[in-house]
Amino acid sequence: MEKIIPDVVDTVPNNIIKIHYPSGVDVNLGNELTPLSVKDEPTVQWPTEEGEYYTLAMVDPDAGEFAQVKHWLVVNILGNDVSKGEILVPYGGSRPPKTSLNRYIFLVYKQSGHLKHTETPIASGSRVGRIKFNIRQFAFKYNLGQPFAGNLYLAKGDEYSEQLRAQRLKEQQK
């Protein structure tokens, strides 16, 4: 799976996360998608066990000095209804540079119960607190074990992502 082992996790998850974007595209174990096609929050499904809680994470391990970047982090999801989970990091789509093909990795961890955490939720649209994340350390900190389910796509920068990057630079210069 695109060298996510050992770059991001230690084992291949036993289950696949089904991921469908409003643009009509699906994530399929390393297929290439455009930043424009993944800009909106997708629907996700994975096999669940009744009464169990899960953590969903989306990370980009290829963001250079900023890697890993948290693109999405939701804990205390009962079943796979993400909308009822506790959002620590709202969904943020891909913004890779045109010069590289980045991996965007979705992981689900089965929690041992309702997770009591010390994380500070991040505001929508904010980059603060998203960079230099490590999903392996997060899973260890909260005793989540190995990932229960996973999937990934690849993306290279396009005109849409370049516009977003230019807009961010402009805001930083204010």
Automatic annotation (TrEMBL):
InterPro entries: PEBP, PEBP-like_sf, PEBP_euk. It comes from the Eukaryota. Transmembrane segments: none annotated. It holds the Pfam family PBP. This is Phosphatidylethanolamine-binding protein. The lineage of its organism: Eukaryota, Metazoa, Ecdysozoa, Arthropoda, Chelicerata.
